[in-house]
Amino acid sequence: MANFTLLLPYQPPWQWQQFQRHFALRAVPGLEALTPDSYARGFAIDGSSGWLRVTPLPGQNALELRCSLGSPRHLDHLEQRVRRMFDLDAEPQAIAQHLSGDALLAPLVQRNPGLRLPVAFDPFEQAVRAIVGQQVTVKAAVTLVGRLVQRVGTPLQMPGAPAISHLFPSPQALAEADLTGIGMPGKRVQCLQHFAARVADGSLQLDLTDGSASLIERLCRLPGIGPWTAEYIALRAFGEADAFPASDLGLLKAPVWGTAGIDARRLTARAEAWRPWRAYAAAHLWHNYAGD
User: Is residue 160 very low, low, confident or very high in pLDDT (cuts 50, 70, 90)?
Assistant: First the structure.
């Protein structure tokens, strides 16, 4: 194993607190570890395992990435993934200017001009989280994903990363696992394992090569995966800037709509004006829903 330290610059404004809160709420023990000023996790790239820690640098528009991995040839790939996780390549001024054209969003953007899109480290992992999280709370979903990690994930022993004990399960391992008693409805287990099997055998490509609309269509063809899950995967697994899960409860019930809220059909129509940054509009509405 070799240790590396990289500096990851970004264009301000950018808020560490937004990402720390997001990942802390969803952190799976053994897979991830957070402190008020750091995020750490285990990972595997092309069969090579390692661990990473990200910390903000006070007074600098940059994050520090410390990592331990088997080969330096994976370093560029790792850097790209971490930059995507923390949305370091966004264009905050352009996004804020566009969304501020909507009178309803303008005050939200003014309060939080640096709001970005927290994205999962791995698309397959995020897709699993989205499927597991259907119709349950975030806390319940984290508990279920934690059980999957402990039962099916690969044990990991990494010097310097005492809180990291497992890697996230591979598609093949999850597809073949005995998930009896895991705590999910039988149909959701079937959906999850069918999805994992399709990824494992290569018949389902989790990428945006043909655009997010194509990915969403492919996902919606699978049993048990609907538009909300597919749109959420596009947003959280890839940072797709225009993904918009219009039926999401947090978007529909954000205080900005008043006590009556809004329905998915009207929200979808309203969101047309927010293209091509609808995912960032969603970030502001979620922030509003959370009371921040």
Answer: confident
How many domains is the chain partitioned into structurally?
1
The model scores a pTM over 0.90: yes
Q: In this structure, is residue 129 part of a structural domain?
A: no
Full residue range of the structural domain in which residue 82 is found: 2-89
Tell me if 232 is assigned to some domain: no
Let me know if 248 is a catalytic residue. Answer: yes
pLDDT at 162 over 80: no
Catalytic, out of 89, 102, 210, 248: 248
Alpha-carbon gap, residue 208 to 242, rounded angstroms: 13
Q: Which two tokens stand for residue 249?
A: 């409860």
Q: Is residue 85 part of a domain?
A: yes
Q: What tens digit of pLDDT does each residue of 45-65 get?
A: 988 899 999 999 999 999 999
Decide: residue 292, CB within 10 A, 0-12 exposed, 13-18 middle, 19+ buried.
middle
Give residue for tokens 């993934």: 81
pLDDT, tens only, 212-235: 999 999 999 999 999 999 999 999
| Residue 65 falls inside a structural domain | yes
Q: What is the CATH number of the domain that holds 9?
A: 3.30.310.20
pLDDT at 292: 63
